[in-house]
Write a structure and sequence with these properties.
The complex is a heterodimer of chains A (323) and B (308). By secondary structure, chain A is mostly helical. Chain A has 14 helices and 4 strands. In chain A, strands 1-4 form a two-stranded antiparallel ribbon. In chain A, strands 2-3 form a two-stranded antiparallel sheet. In chain A, strand 2 and strand 3 form a beta hairpin. The two termini of chain A are 16 Å apart. A two-stranded antiparallel sheet of chain B has the order 1-4. In chain B, helix 1 packs antiparallel against helix 10. Chain B has one domain: ABC transporter involved in vitamin B12 uptake, BtuC (Orthogonal Bundle). The relative contact order of chain B is 0.20. In chain B, strand 2 and strand 3 form a beta hairpin. Helix content of chain B is 71%, strand content 5%. The chains are: A mainly alpha (323), B mainly alpha (308). At the A-B interface, helix 5, helix 11 and helix 13 of A face helix 4, helix 9 and helix 11 of B.
Chain lengths: 323, 308
Amino acid sequence: MTAKNPGILSHPVTRSALLHSGVIVLLAWLFQVLPEYHSGNLARIMVLAVYAMGYNVLFGYTGLLSLGHALFFAAGMYGLGLSMYWLDASPAPSMLAGLISALVVSGVVGALALRTTGVAFMIVTLMFAQAGFLTILLFGEYTRGDEGFVLPQADRVLFGLDLTQPANRYGGALILFTICLGLVAWLVQSRFGKTLIAIRENEERARMLGYDVQRHKWLAVVVSGTLSGASGAAYALLFGYAGATFATVQYSIFPLLWVLLGGAGTTLGPLIGTLFMFYLIDISSQFTSAYLLIASVILILLTLFAPHGLAGVVRKRLIPWLP
Amino acid sequence: MDFGPHLFLAMLEGTITAAVLALTAVGLSIVFGVMRVVNVAHGEFFMLGAVIAWWVTTLLGGHPALGFVVALIVAPLLTGLIAATADRIVLRRINYDPERTIVATIGLLYVIQQATLMTFGPEARPVEAPFNQRIALPWFEYGIDGFMLIWPWGLGTTTYKLAVIVAAVVILLALWVLMTRTRIGLIMRATQLDREMAIAHAIPVDRVYALVFALGAGLAALGGVLVVPIQQAHYLMGGDPLLLSFIVVIIGGLGSVVGTVVAAILIGMSDGIISVFFSPTLAKILATLFVAFVLVFRPQGLFGQRPS
């Protein structure tokens, strides 16, 4: 496995760039060959994978387990949705509104929740997300609560491209995915990302070495929350719907599940996990309405037998340099 | 005669909420205290209690009291057995690692919930109370003729609801005796204080953990059985008790049983009163935010001691 292979190809940054570009090209190629049903699914998976990647920045790289990421997803979703629905804003500024609302919400929640650690951190994030979900219900007059609201097809036109067309929708999802994957891949190779990993491995040691642990963790929450918000906003824009279901505890648990399944602390793990889970639910729901049962049994089996996920297994057995 | 009697009624309803909540939350608190495990599936044990009560009463038929008494015994035992099995095949294997335990109990939550959905179905099903006489509540008022008793004034409660309060108090007292006056309680407290030392004194910690997990689940199931004649059995009914139990356990100080009971009364009463006079959603928002801020600024809970 450790073949000495001098040259540019063995440099980790180059290898990571090549691998990620390969994945993007593969995804672009898949649109050409897949039937419409599956390419539609894949567009959804790419958007949700961005959510999982955001979650992974905090959970996989920084070692902080949040149970409240649905709050950030919903902040992005409603930031975009409400500005388009009530203010008649066009998609580009609405997207910005979604990102900013996720940024602000994660900034505030991060500053408060990071005063706690471990189990308390999980519960505090869970409680904030629950309060957020209930707030959406409380203002049902504007948010339409559980029922949600549909963004009219005519409004979903970004830079002249009608995002309700399958090809444009797929393209939009792929562009978002590419930007976020590039960002995360760069981030984890940067000094900042390495510091986060140091915090995950040993917080005390990182602190002793002079890193401002608290500030790094807060930035990780903000980056993670904003990526989740970007996913939420894009989901509302591309699929034309925003509802309170996306703010429930279940949607906080999904990214955890995807990341665990795919492999925490790997750049491609979130995509693998989301893809796997999506099709698992898709296939199992043909047999039973209790598809969550299957998902939860897998979750338990994973915690028991493969705590490092699918990409973790690949990294251990096949490609030790997997970023 | 407007605000006062309604407040009185709200407080009575609040006391019933508090009684059931205290049972459920004490179960969560014991599990956390002894095992240091955050059991996210706790609400589902509550739901199992209610669902098993429905099964038992339906299977037995006859007088509702008969089925109910059998359910009071069978439901906690069966739920405890399920919990002990889960502890043995899942939690013990991951060595009670805090984060993996949370993930595993999230999985357990959905397994129990979805298995109930597949067998019990999505309907809400009622269980008849063993006895259910209406009582009109008296109200005293100081009027022009001096002190007078107004009875009946329109609203009332039922004997069953009062019995729930009594039953909860009796169960909590029995638990207190179990924890402080018996050998098994001593062993549990020893394990809570120092796990390593307990092992060194040949206490079978594995078995104590399984027992504590079963006991916690059994208490939640008892809460479920008691509540089912008032509120129907439904496969999603575990969500609210879970959230409220978390709130109560955190405000009471994690692992402190007395603090948990006090907090249950506080939260049950305020939930009852705020829900009657304001929006129930607002009541829940305030409670969840309150908990978040308690954890952030006073992590030992309102009644807990700061670790020295």
